Amino acid sequence: GNYRTQLWDKQSESFLPSTPGLGMHVEVKDPDGKVVLSRQYGSEGRFTFTSHTPGEHQICLHSNSTRMALFAGGKLRVHLDIQVGEHTNNYPEIAAKDKLTELQLRARQLLDQVEQIQKEQNYQRVRRGLQRGGE
Asked: Is residue 13 a part of any domain in this protein?
């Protein structure tokens, strides 16, 4: 997920980019309610997590600064972009960091795609099982 925040400005009566001092806490829970991510970030950032349980996940973002929120008239806008699946990987960055050849990088991409397909199939199996159980 990528996010950025904006605080309400009373003078201009509009949302302005947040000051760097604003902190955001991001917490992610899996379908069983188990916390898979709990971290403090800045006024904008990127968070990642790997899901091991199929189903609906809960993503909670909240500001760590009541003082700034009060200063902004209590209004905080959060822009949130969520990407799911293996396409979220930055392969050029992975190649540079791990010093991979072009062939090794392509193999990594294919393995990630296979893993994503398996996760999707497992998720569909669980969904079908839940639907049958609920009928």
From this structure: yes
Domain membership of residue 75 (yes or no) is: yes
> In this structure, what token pair is assigned to residue 102?
């072009």
- How many domains, the chain? 1
pLDDT tens for 17-61 read: 877 778 889 999 998 999 999 999 888 888 888 777 778 889 998
E-strand ranges in the chain read 2-9, 14-17, 24-29, 35-41, 44-46, 58-63, 76-81
Judge whether 69 lies within some domain. Answer: yes
Q: CB-based contacts of 1: which residues, under 8 Å, 6+ apart?
A: 26, 46, 47, 48, 59, 80, 81, 82, 83
